[in-house]
Amino acid sequence: MLVQFEKVSLNYGENHPVLTDINFALPKGGFYFLTGPSGAGKSSLLRLMCCAEKPNTGRVFLFGHDTSHVARKDLPDIRRQIGVVFQDFRLIPHLTAMENAALPLRLVGTDEDYITRHTRELLEWVGLGKRLDALPAELSGGEQQRVAIARAVVNKPKMLLADEPTGNVDDETAIKLFHLFDELHKMGTAVILATHQQNLVERFNKPALRLKNGHLTSLAAKAA
What predicted TM-score, i.e. pTM, was given to this entire model? Predict the structure, then answer.
């Protein structure tokens, strides 16, 4: 199983429930949308999935591991299997596109020849082969997003989490990015993509988890 939530609730403060009694299980290797209006709890659910938050109640399983009982020393190994694309990209301003995308490999001491070759190939694949030396401020919003995607998958994670990845780009760029995520999925990475853009969800016709006011209202399978 890729991800499993059992009776998970999350509160930010005593009177601020964010997620309530969440139950679902997702098989490995799929592509899933996480939908719902702003404030429904999508970002919080993703934070639980990448071990950035712990639930107040319930259990979260990742790749078969109960994260509430995993030793602290073993958490980095689980996190390295997860790529995350944040809403605000979080690129480091003084690093080039190449350096930003390569950062996860460099942090774990990967061989420099491999870093250079693999990161260059990945940036060329996302259409940034001519922008390797550009700083984030020199890139458009769509280009910055593609650097963030490259960084998230450069170490070949089992799962990619994307939080509103098309919220800051135009419709044409949004569609291109969704096609890119679909290609990553076909190459073997499971994808969970949070969005409130229902038109894009319908266009790509993938299974969808739907949140409303912190409750999981449905896990809808794609149409036959």
Answer: 0.88
